[in-house]
Amino acid sequence: MSQIINIRKKFLEQPLGTILTEEEEFVEGEEAPRTPFHLSKTKLIATVGPKSCSVEVLKQLLQAGIQAVRFDFTWCTLEVQGFFDRTYENLLQACNETKKMCAIMVDLTGRELYLKGKHAVGEDGWPRRVESPVTVESGQIIYLSCDKADQDKKDTFLVNYDDFYEMAKVGDTIHLGRYLSTGAEASAVYVDVLEITGKKIKCKCKNPAVLDGLVTVFHCERSKSGQENVQNLLPVMTEDDKEALKRWSTREVDFVLIPYPKCKEDVQEVRDYLDFLGMHETLCISKIETRAALNGFEEILDVSYGVVISRSSLGMDMPIEKSVKIQKELIKRCNFVGKPCIITRVVDTMTNSPRPTRAEATDVANAVLDGTDAILLGAETTRGKFPVESVNTVKDICRQAEMVYNNDYHFKSIMKALGIDGHTPDIGEPMSEAEAMASSTVRAADKTNAAMILCFTESGTFARQVAKYRPNMPILAITVPTLKVKGCSWTLLGRRAARQNLIIRGVFPKLADPKTGLQEGWILQDAIKFSIAQGMLRKDDFVVVCHRLRGDLVISIVSVNDALGVTMQSGSELGQRHASTASMTSLVTHDTDDQYGSLPSSFEHGCAVRAQQSDGKSRSPRHNGKGLKPLSEEPRAEEKATASSGDDPVKTKIKRGFFSS
Description:
Catalytic activity: pyruvate + ATP = phosphoenolpyruvate + ADP + H(+)
Oligomer: single chain
EC number: 2.7.1.40
Region (Disordered): 608-661
Strand order of the largest sheet: 1-2-3-15-16-17-18-19
Cofactor: K(+)
Largest sheet: 8 strands, parallel, barrel
Domain Pyruvate kinase C-terminal: 435-548
């Protein structure tokens, strides 16, 4: 209660004007304020389309903060691939000119239902309806048919699923709307099923609408009490999807989005096909769009790299009043297992307006506070009039929400769920060694008020584990690219691992200069100089560095001043010159005020934690529910008993003197 009172008092004492100018404040006489780091920890993904396919617009999107680009195959026509081929080349050029990395996502058609309207590919390669927009009025009778013979009949729309008539029943509600519509615009209509005759469904419109573009069909929930709605029997991948993936198999595709998965077997089917094409490093992300996906969420998440909460489709397949609760629960599950969660449909009004509604801004902020990793923009960047403004607006909202995000509560929630406080774990397995080091890294950064966490990583896994605990500071993940030579051909490894971390909240991957090789000292200096230039660091800041030293995973607390002042010897290990003279002492004291702490209260700047078994194998610090277990140089009584039984005791030591003058 006292903490709440203090926070409230501090807030009331703060002039409201400072909230608007907080990034410009600095004390006269000090050095000039750092250039504000303009990116949000929450990542932004743009869907490319006619309004965002040029090199110039793509450069603006990258500079605004886009971390990934989505190529959407929902039009389900191979003719669109020509448009995507040109856009892909434009994206590579934009990345080269801006010197920025960008992950590539491919979204399949899958089980998407849509009306088979006549369309043609325009001069820019994008498909458009040949027919004029269809206007329907409230109370008007229309027909949905599965028979191709009815295609040209008046007030009749042909559905791409031949057995759609078997899904519908009299009294059902069906949604017809332009693809990437919210369901509230003039381009969407809800119809009630009145009669089913053969393969023809007679419907009555509930509202007026103008149907244009690619019109999708969604069978809305039949009842509020049913746990699973009726689903179509279409395959998880269409033949066009497979042909498109073959076309893209020679490119570095980072993610494939799987629409409408029902179970883990759907994800595995896509995974097997990607492996068949040789796309072994491409990761699968599942889109949660139906009740069936909710019922199988745990197993779908288990076999997926992450998930997309497709809020438009999911919102129509469940009672609308439960949408907020379900969103929070899905994000929470993803956060606890350390897998990225992406949400969609946030600022739909910016498709035609330069400013979102207040409700949309609040929706974005709430998603950030819930813990989402990334936000996927659809119509805003595909056909919207303000693609760059949409990105900047969402980014600014995310940054403001991140300022009030309760990182400490999130950290403690995960530690409690893992059973670190002495309780039975709520989810998953007990904390692994890597997890222990990741949580220790975050706690070290928190206790030392570090400005940044720096991870040296090859696959990006450890950086993702650190990000799982949502530290208050950015995580710079440094990947050193390596050459893999096979005969006369060679491959540069590391780029894909770096790009795949672009959608992880708080992680900012960067490729190290290959000329530095494995000389981590030089890489550290380059990383700190880069961070200063980007506004992530400034003079007198401290950085928590995670790296390997002689085979052991080490957490170092590094001063920016000392790190830049140290001249590393060519070929030397990180801090080797200082580590050689460092004294070794044991961890004895603890911070008793923090039962979730992973570091002792005596932890000082310029220190590194290393856990090592007596057989020389590295191991993470052990938790006893109150942080690191205190171990002295001499084994304690219980450790002597353990040693006598044949198990090796763990000696946790602390090195002092890293980068100290």
